[in-house]
Design goal:
This protein is α/β, with parallel strands linked by helices. The protein folds into two domains: 168 residues, Cupredoxins -  blue copper proteins (Immunoglobulin-like); 107 residues, DsrEFH-like (Hypothetical Protein Ychn, Chain: A, 3-Layer(aba) Sandwich). The protein is 24% helix and 26% strand. The protein is built from eight helices and 14 strands. Strands 3-9-8-5-6 form a five-stranded mixed β-sheet, with no helix packed on it. The chain has a five-stranded parallel β-sheet with strand order 13-12-11-10-14, sandwiched between helices. Helix 7 links the parallel strand 12 and strand 13. It is elongated and about 70 Å long. The N terminus is likely disordered. The chain binds copper (II) ion. The site of copper (II) ion has 6 residues, from loops.
Length: 309
């Protein structure tokens, strides 16, 4: 009798172990190579909430700019070579990103809760064809809670990217695909204010050539940049060349440059124009950085509006 019980118990256990295994928890760390072949390898990587992804940069310069998504980490700007830089993902979701130096060089980080049964767990692969960099947001990208996303709560304190604020929680777009679980949709619709509907982002590029003093073109260009940075749905990039590189020093219009960068704008300076004037990175106000004609070319190619001053 006892033997029979043990046998049946063993059989039951064996039967259990034959059932499909639960999906493995996502790892806590991951590595992405930014390759000389102008690609992120692997193109998509998974990590659990509070996990860390490290981007390894080699001889060819690359950067990482995340698309609009609530809870995304800070970008890795600039021209990164021969270094490794990590970012921690504190929110579940799908985070598409790109290298702004190389159009089309894209990747995705999928962040899931440690427990695959959690409603935050990703239920579908990211779709292409939408979003700032082509990766459409999924329901898992939106936290089904009534509180605004952490990025929005930081507004004003850290001067975070404004784009995070108004596209914090777009409405799920792929209801017809069945890729989103019904309870996620219900929770989402119940928690997202209507004002948070997605807006198309307009990228404005302001190119300033004039020095900070003598004429008022540089001053007015920066005034426009600051005003644009306050516009919902507008990304602002400012490129300083010629005598305008002096604008980004502490002695001149640096405080205006700071207003642009603290509002989420990007300010780049022509490297050769800096060199011609003996300006190095240590002369620049925080947020301004050395750039190049190659990056300006990318900015021009990806801008919706270009305003030269
Ligand atoms: Cu690149």
């Amino acid at each position: 009798m006892r033997t029979a019980f043990c046998v049946s118990l063993f059989t039951a256990v064996a039967a259990c172990t034959n059932e499909p295994a639960a999906p493995p928890s996502p790892p806590t760390t991951g590595v992405v190579q930014a390759t000389p072949a102008i690609a992120f390898q692997p193109q998509q990587v998974a990590v659990r909430v509070n996990g860390t992804i490290t981007w390894e940069f080699g001889a060819v310069p690359h950067n990482v700019a995340f698309a609009v998504a609530a809870g995304r980490p800070a970008d890795i700007p600039g021209f990164n070579t021969s270094t490794s830089i990590a970012r921690t993902f504190t929110a579940a979701g799908t985070f598409p990103y790109e290298c702004t130096i190389h159009p089309g060089m894209r990747g995705t980080v999928v962040v899931t809760a440690a427990d695959p049964a959690s409603p935050y767990a990703v239920t579908s692969a990211p779709r292409s064809g939408g979003g700032r960099y082509g990766g459409a947001p999924t329901a898992a990208q939106h936290r089904p809670v009534a509180r605004p996303p952490r990025a929005a709560r930081r507004r004003g304190r850290a001067g975070g990217h404004r784009e995070r604020l108004m596209v914090a929680a777009p409405i799920p777009h792929s209801l017809a695909t069945g890729a989103i679980m019904l309870d996620q949709v219900t929770a989402h619709v119940g928690s997202v204010p209507r004002a948070a509907a997605p807006q198309r982002r307009v990228n404005a590029l302001i190119i300033i050539n004039d020095p900070p003093y003598g004429r008022e073109r540089a001053l007015n260009g920066l005034r426009l940049a600051i005003a644009l940075a306050g516009q919902p749905g507008t990304g602002v990039r400012v490129f300083l060349m010629g005598g305008a590189v002096l604008c980004a020093t502490d002695y001149s219009l640096g405080s205006m440059i700071r207003l642009v960068t603290e509002s989420g704008g990007d300010v780049g300076l022509s490297g050769s124009c800096m060199d011609a004037r003996g300006i190095t990175g240590r002369h620049l106000v925080a947020g301004a950085r050395r750039s190049s004609m190659e990056e300006l070319a990318h900015w021009v190619a990806s801008a919706d509006r270009i305003v030269p001053f």
